[in-house]
Design brief:
eight-stranded parallel sheet, 42% helix, disordered C terminus, globular, 337 residues
């Protein structure tokens, strides 16, 4: 039997994949604004190719393209009748590509935009949205484990843990934080969020999206201090430059069409991977803006891919700065000042 996510995490850090929605938007398959995943059924070959790029780059987990694949969110673009097809096909596609290597498939669910702590009735509605996605993905797979992500409400994240745990598969859940001081919408700091989620039965807790590596590393480290002895912690920053003054890249003037100007070089994600490992983070991934080059750099920095390159013979005259300065990928990616 293949090693599951918890066995792999017990052995050492696991490398996740990168971002899907924004990269597929750049390629013309996802519409900016709604960012819904109809690409799964309209252009499955495009999704298959992106999965394959992450796999070849060293990712040990492929997430299903089911972020925003709940009935309410799909209804905003007239696709409420496609919920089952999108969720089932996404698992099949991820499973097909994962079989080309040694990757696990994570069934992905996300915030629903339907949760309102002031209205108790929304809790059952969110449960029903989660249950439908979970059931669809189980029918088509099942996935190896679940990832619930980008929750700003701790209450909604707890509902995800409740519903996902009922399936019997391992559960990873990650929060997102928009403003400093970092806190859930209810006011819980990252450490408190991690403790509450772990107490609720999550197998892995953590943080994802919105923040770049510099801001997110501190959040993850606080979570490790809170629960690192009981459950593994995950961190998946965006590959965009954020700051203490603007910690949420989606609130930037660059979002969504000018993000190239704040995209991080691969070395910044490689350096993050090393620092995250040193801080005790066990699931090290990346989110929006992270493409194959970022994942590949992280894989090399973590020893998931070999450093050595194929031997080649120079023509005798330097052709570029690669030879002028004796650059190596390892130096550029990890030993940045």
């Amino acid at each position: 039997m293949a090693r599951g996510i918890l066995e792999r995490l017990a052995e050492g850090p696991v490398l996740g994949d990168g971002g899907y929605l924004l990269e597929l938007e750049k390629r013309g398959y996802v519409q900016a604004g709604p960012f819904t995943p109809e690409v799964v059924i309209e252009h499955p070959e495009a999704l298959r190719q992106l999965h394959r790029e992450f796999l070849r780059a060293g990712a040990e987990v492929l997430q299903t393209m089911t972020f925003y694949a709940s009935e309410d969110k799909l209804a905003t673009v007239g696709l409420q009748g496609k919920v089952d097809e999108i969720n089932r096909n996404a698992v099949r596609i991820a499973r097909e590509v994962a079989a080309e290597g040694d990757a696990l498939v994570a069934g992905n669910l996300s915030l629903t935009w339907a949760y309102d702590p002031a209205d108790p009735a929304t809790a059952d509605h969110v449960r029903a949205l989660f249950d439908r996605q979970l059931e669809d993905q189980l029918d088509a797979g099942p996935p190896d484990f679940w990832i619930g992500e980008t929750f700003s409400y701790l209450g909604e994240a707890l509902l995800f843990v409740e519903r996902a745990r009922a399936t019997g598969l391992p559960v990873m859940v990650t929060m997102s934080f928009e403003r400093i001081p970092f806190a859930s919408y209810e006011g819980d700091d990252p450490a408190a969020c991690a403790r509450r989620l772990a107490e609720a039965g999550a197998d892995v807790v953590g943080v994802n999206c919105l923040n770049g590596p510099e801001q997110q590393l501190g959040i993850a480290a606080a979570m490790v201090q809170a629960v690192g002895g009981t459950v593994p912690v995950a961190a998946q920053p965006v590959a965009y430059r954020t700051s203490d003054e603007q910690p949420d890249f989606t609130a930037s003037e660059h979002f969504p069409y000018g993000l190239t100007a704040i995209t991080l070089p691969r070395g910044d994600l490689a350096a993050f991977a090393v620092r995250a490992r040193e801080a005790g983070v066990r699931y090290i991934g990346s989110c929006c803006g992270s493409v194959a080059e970022h994942v590949r750099a992280m894989a090399k920095a973590l020893g998931k891919l070999p450093d050595q390159e194929r031997a080649w013979r120079s023509s005798g005259r330097p052709m570029s700065a690669y030879e002028y300065h004796a650059h190596t990928e390892r130096e550029v990616e990890v030993e940045r000042p």
